[in-house]
Write a structure and sequence with these properties.
The protein is of the alpha/beta class and about 325 residues long. It folds into 2 domains: about 260 residues, Aldolase class I (TIM Barrel), CATH 3.20.20; about 60 residues, Helicase, Ruva Protein, domain 3 (Orthogonal Bundle), CATH 1.10.8. It is about 45% helix and about 15% strand. The relative contact order is 0.13.
């Protein structure tokens, strides 16, 4: 059985500049729960404590988002994303108080050590906790394997690999999962972005190598070019004989009904999203790069190239402006 985490109400928040409302969260959480989704992840696009002037101020705070979803979810589990440094221990305490079931403690793919105390804290509260390695294209398989084994050692119930830039190919995914499996027997999951049109294929490659958890969003609603689209993912999984709690018919119905209150246009892969994938940049950077290029009158794709060379990761949005300024003066 493949466990599905629906990130529509968290990663999808990126797509609307973190402006999902209480009513949107309530309606979608109710309907996703009724459709049989295993885990419904909720929050600011950057996770607990992410609301800020730099990353975007959410329309409602973490407590309101989580309490709204908690009241709506009757069968599945409520999940959150947490990045140490953006979020604090008090944010985890708030989520525990509200009744969150699944905690995903995330770090850059080479910095698993910063998650140790947070994974241990949540685990000691009797909660399910997953370690999350972000931007996994930036680490070779053997390096990634060591980082995943660290998270498993801290007590993580599973480790999720995030292709945050939509940069990987199916073979890239296979090599990473194979390397991890040589070091640890922990459960593995995969979270894809669709910058190069590979999200479903990469997710299937992960499952074929033994991953048991997959992330997706309704209609691909997510940062940049969007996440793995839930509807075709379930259809392909079922066609290949993999069992899921939710059926294609149920998620297709969810896609139709959510059109009435979620402003998630059918995702397409824009040139900027492809550039982001090519240069290995976080999918959520796209609007920031476009804005900086326009403000300082520099070439958007030259800016992508320079930022890719600097190996930026989420949370370094200020460097986008700095690089655009330097490019404008150089020209």
């Amino acid at each position: 059985m493949i466990t599905i985490t629906d990130c529509t109400l968290r990663d999808g928040n990126h797509a609307v500049r973190h402006q999902l409302s209480k009513d949107q969260i309530r309606q979608y959480a109710e309907q996703a729960d009724a459709a049989g989704i295993d885990i419904i992840e909720v929050g600011h696009g950057n996770g607990l404590g992410g609301s800020s002037a730099l990353l975007g101020v959410s329309s409602i705070d973490d407590r309101q988002m989580l309490e709204t979803a908690r009241a709506a979810i009757q069968h599945g589990r409520l999940g959150v994303h947490f990045i140490p440094g953006l979020g604090k221990s008090t944010d985890l305490e708030l989520a525990i108080e509200v009744g969150v079931d699944v905690f995903r403690i995330a770090s850059h793919c080479t910095e698993a050590n910063i998650t140790a105390s947070y994974i241990e804290f949540v685990k000691n509260q009797g909660k399910t906790v997953y370690g999350v390695l972000m931007m996994t294209h930036m680490a070779e398989p053997n390096v990634l394997a060591k980082q995943a084994s660290l998270m498993a050692g801290y007590g993580a119930d599973a480790v999720i690999l995030m292709d945050s830039a939509g940069h990987l190919t199916p073979d890239d995914v296979r090599w990473r999962i194979q390397a991890i499996q040589q070091l640890t027997e922990t459960k593995l999951g995969f979270h894809a972005h669709n910058n190069l049109g590979m999200a479903v294929a990469n997710s299937i490659a992960a499952v074929e190598e033994g991953a048991q958890l997959l992330d997706a969003c309704i209609k691909g609603f997510g940062a940049g070019a969007g996440n793995t689209q839930l509807e075709p993912l379930i259809a392909v999984l079922n066609r290949l004989g993999y069992r899921t709690q939710c059926s294609f018919e149920a998620v297709a119905g969810l896609a139709y009904t959510s059109e009435h209150y979620l402003d998630c246009l059918t995702p397409h892969i824009g040139a900027a999203n492809i550039a982001s994938g090519i240069h290995g940049l976080f999918s959520g950077f796209a609007p920031h790069i476009k804005r900086a290029a326009e403000q300082f009158r520099v070439d958007e794709f030259e800016l992508y190239q320079l930022l890719g060379q600097r190996r930026l990761v989420a949370g370094q949005e200020d460097i986008i402006v700095e690089t655009a300024v330097r490019l404008s003066t150089a020209n």
